[in-house]
């Protein structure tokens, strides 16, 4: 109410201002502005009165605020000993003298604050993956390869950070200590009609024939700088793939053993080996479809032996192939072993034949005897000298052009 009166009084004062101006103008012009002046005075006086009354009423009214007093709202206070909260309340101020508020006879229910559960970190989280249709189908099939595939852990590829070929030791080391490097061991195992390089102790294949398992074609092999790459040794589970599926955590000796394990090695066409790179069953398969079941079964056997994991796409692709060859077996250490070198297959170095005896020197043939007109002749200049006739001049007894080799007319100088 007081605020309304103040507003009305303020409006009346504002209205008195223009009326007063009009009264002054009329006074100046006609000296007859008494009615206007009285109106102005009335408005001004009425506005002042309303302002004073409104201000008085407003000051007498209690002040209210829309801001909540934190102490006026019950708030739970946690108890240190019990973990519960006890509500406290304070009465809002009023214009009249405060009347005591009786204490509540019913205690407010205690607020129980439970600590959140502490999560135990799992160092190897394994998200639940929905098996693909191929995995479900192969699970129902029988066969060692299908069973081993489903037993492999399934994870994503680890980072390739730190990978290099050198991390798996020197290329083609003699890990089985049979005196031959691994490449020659696999060539002797996988090639036919082989010949052995002379002086290699029965190890190095000089020539042979490969029936390439990846393409089904026949490839002649000849050892040499420009020809050896036609046949290469493939790591069925590529070294990079092994690194990203567990080998990064192996000691160097295990990685070297893996890189030279005959179970993981096949002699194949060089071009296809380069084409494969580090692909798994999800990204690369041999062009010859008849070898694919055995190929992925060998990958499963290698990963099972070395406890490597498979990726979800790799598992699905392998399962899809194995559904078409139920009962597929796994290659074994025995079926993949390399033959021992056979020194008897290494031809001994050839010994050069003794030189043929030199033919006997032909007997000297005396030059024809030149007979001069007087009947004296000499077989050679030695005979002339023995006879004491040297030198002979043209026209001398026994002179002949045969004895005069330079044709200067003097023989046997």
What does the model show?
The chain is α+β, with helices and mostly antiparallel strands and 413 residues long. The chain folds into 3 domains: 2-59; 133-345, no CATH class; 370-413, no CATH class. Helices cover 33% and strands 9% of the residues. The chain contains 12 helices and 9 strands. It has helices spanning 2-30, 34-60, 133-140, 144-151, 182-190, 239-244, 252-259, 270-276, 292-306, 312-322, 333-336, 381-386; strands spanning 75-78, 85-88, 192-196, 205-211, 218-222, 231-235, 265-269, 392-393, 410-411. The strands form 4 sheets. It has a 3-stranded antiparallel sheet with strand order 3-4-5, with helices on one face. Strands 1-2 form a two-stranded antiparallel sheet. The protein has a two-stranded antiparallel sheet with strand order 6-7. The chain starts with a helix and ends with a strand. Mean pLDDT is 77; it is low at 62-128 and 369-373.
What does the main sheet amount to? 3 strands, antiparallel
Output the structural class.
alpha+beta
**Averaged pLDDT:** 77
Count, helices? 12
Beta-strand segment tally: 9
Strand ordering within the main sheet: 3-4-5
Whole-angstrom Rg: 60 Å
- Uncertain regions spanning at least 5 consecutive residues: 62-128, 369-373
